Amino acid sequence: MASNQHRKQPSASGSAMPAASTATPTALPPSDPLQQYAGNVNDRKVPSVPPPATSKPTEAEFFAVDDRGDRKPNPVFLKDHFFKEGRLKEEQALYIINLATRILAKENNMVEVKSPVTVCGDIHGQYYDLMKLFEVGGPMNENVYLFLGDYVDRGDFGIECLLYLYSLKIWTPNRIVLLRGNHECRHLTEYFTFKKECLHKYSEKIYEACIQSFCALPVAAIVDNRFFCVHGGISPNLVTLQDLQNLNRFQEPGSQGLLCDLLWADPVTNYGHETEPSHHAPLAPGTSFIPNATRGCSYFYTFFLERNSLLSVIRGHEAQDAGYTMHRKTPKKNFPSVITIFSAPNYLDVYKNRGAVLKYANKNITIRQYNSNPHPYWLPNFMDAFTWSLPFVGAKIADMLLGVLSVCTEDELDTESDEEAKEDQAAEQIRLRREQIKHKIRAVGRMQRVFTLLRYDLLLSSLADTSLRAASELTLANPASAALPNQLAVNGTKISKGIHSFEEARKSDIANERLPEFEPRSAIFPAPSMRLSGREVDVGGMDTLIRRTLQEEKDGEDDEDMLVEKVAERLAMGRTLGAGSRPSTLKRHGTT
């Protein structure tokens, strides 16, 4: 992202460098322009950025023995290992996930927590900010950490966040409480980035184990019988807290019902001023729940506390400019009825917000804020440099091939050739030869169109035209384009330049706050976050579009297709060009 350009150092896990030669290098003449490139090719170009860890931990490193003599994953080692971008062996990652799942499954739907406690909001794969969170929150042996969910998706380090938090849960199960967020489900992790991250860094087996662990996460907590903690909010199906114990949480959340509302509900945007004029219609007195149009599911909520003798609801789920928001105070105790906590600073590297945690001890509440930490840079959808650049290079090569072949003018293409085949050649051989050449040229044209499609897809997933549209409509000027899933997360420097405030970022990202609807995964793009939402209406998505391009015939061709056809026809006829003929000018495409 734009704010972390200084961390854009190529991974050391790429191609191995050859051993340095023991021979004395030949000195270059002082005037030689190559002198500036002389030096050890093994030296890192940005020495201040440490190389990623390439080795996976041994059993001695991975395990540690606790005070009771039990061998458990070592969270101290894992913290530093993940900070260096290290990865685990698949069996080690599975061990952590499966063991944590068994521990979580034994907990109640609503966990009872005693103060002192540090309440943390959404993390969203921002591992380096999670490290800052633990610095601000204080030592774990002094208070309980209560996380409100949304550990994965949209950030680039979701699996590291999950594995580290699970290792803490295994090591000190009573000192850390992990609740379920709306992103801890199959539906959203397939739509956004977590599935793709698991496939890139580990395997689908790891992803499926994570999905199973999500179903085991408790959905709520109560602190000192005073604070009701949940990721989203309350529900019209939640009359008393006892209703939570009757809930079956071991399932994928639906688009309605109690489990959905606990993960998705929001306070009304004008909470505390419901009867005043606003862009929402005023609420009638006594109204407790209204449909949540922003999220596309669940409900907003207004009053819940008096019925259950609670002081306040503490929840996450919504980005906050200051990292937290204190909503309307209760009339009797003059205490905020709802507190929203968000712990992912500079969310998506665009929001420019602060992160915050809530510390509750000795009947006092303290809000601790913090800013974001720098983090390593990833290309969109976890691509490597070769995968990212191949469509651009391929499109240029196809342009050059057609430019070399298009050495005749439009007039020459439209006129019949004066040079016929020699009379001693069989007519059938000439016809077959011409057809072969025509097929080859058409294949080049189709290849060019395929690379163009891939190139546009990469451009749309990394850039945005901020000068032509409002921030909420940032897309490229391409007829096939539309607002893509996770747009702010995968868009880089250009989009950050077009957004100058938290409110602009929130409005730009409002579509991604809804419960997504998408087609089943395609063969080429295993995660919907890799596809364009405008093409999802086509059965099969981008892979079908490419397949159709490769198989298309002459009917329905546009002007460019007809030009390719005419070039193929002319070359097949054996047209000989004069000495003064020159290839046509290639189109220039920016590849910023």
From TrEMBL:
Keyword Hydrolase: yes
Reactions catalysed according to its record: O-phospho-L-seryl-[protein] + H2O = L-seryl-[protein] + phosphate; O-phospho-L-threonyl-[protein] + H2O = L-threonyl-[protein] + phosphate
EC class name: hydrolase
Ranges for domain Serine/threonine specific protein phosphatases: 179-184
UniProt biased composition (Low complexity): 10-26
SMART domains: PP2Ac
Enzyme Commission identifier(s): 3.1.3.16
Region (Disordered): 1-61
GO biological process: one example: calcineurin-mediated signaling
Cofactor(s) needed: Fe(3+); Zn(2+)
Quaternary state and interactors: Composed of two components (A and B), the A component is the catalytic subunit and the B component confers calcium sensitivity.
Alphabetical list of PANTHER family matching this protein: SERINE/THREONINE-PROTEIN PHOSPHATASE 2B CATALYTIC SUBUNIT 1-RELATED (PTHR45673)
Protein family (similarity comment): Belongs to the PPP phosphatase family. PP-2B subfamily.
Protein name per UniProt: Serine/threonine-protein phosphatase
